[in-house]
TrEMBL record:
Residues 8-65, 73-130 form the CBS domain. The lineage of its organism: Bacteria, Bacillati, Actinomycetota, Actinomycetes, Kitasatosporales. It comes from the Bacteria. SUPFAM superfamilies: CBS-domain pair. Keywords: CBS domain. This is Hypoxic response protein 1. CDD domains: CBS_pair_HRP1_like (cd04622). It comes from Streptomyces fructofermentans. Pfam families: CBS.
Length: 139
């Protein structure tokens, strides 16, 4: 049985909620990623920050990314799965909430992220097509 831990990209890093968006962008560049989980002061997931969030939600609105924090951008209820979750749980979480990146936790600690690229390497063509249709569907 394939699990979230098998599918995920290891080495994901948090961005603390108090960090500014310019620092988040630098970290994204260093890690070559387009999204970072946001952690509160207790290292609990409180959101996900994407490169698009920085551009559309900050820069395009005329705000200074050196003054806006990752926590300012955290909205909604963060979604995640345990490392031992099976493929159906991973797909259910991503499809049910129309999300493209999913943090993976183990013992309440971030251990990885599952992205579209990870799905493409581990799903059948039929599973991948079903995921894409539900996640990208307007609705």
């Amino acid at each position: 049985m394939t699990t979230a831990g098998d599918m995920m990209h290891r080495g994901a890093q948090w961005i603390p909620a108090h960090e500014t968006l310019d620092r988040a962008a630098q970290l994204m560049r260093e890690l070559n990623v387009g999204a970072l989980p946001i952690s509160d002061e207790n290292e609990r997931l409180c959101g996900i920050l994407t490169d698009r969030d920085i551009v559309v939600g900050c820069v395009a609105m005329g705000h200074d990314p050196a003054r806006v924090t990752a926590g300012d951008m955290a909205k909604g209820t963060p979604r995640w799965v345990e490392a031992d979750a099976d493929v159906s749980e991973v797909l259910g979480e991503m499809q049910g909430h129309q999300i493209r990146r999913l943090p993976v936790v183990e013992n309440k600690r971030l251990v990885g992220m599952i992205s579209e690229a990870d799905l493409a390497m581990h799903l059948t063509e039929q599973q991948l097509a079903g995921w894409a249709e539900s996640v990208y569907a307007k609705g």
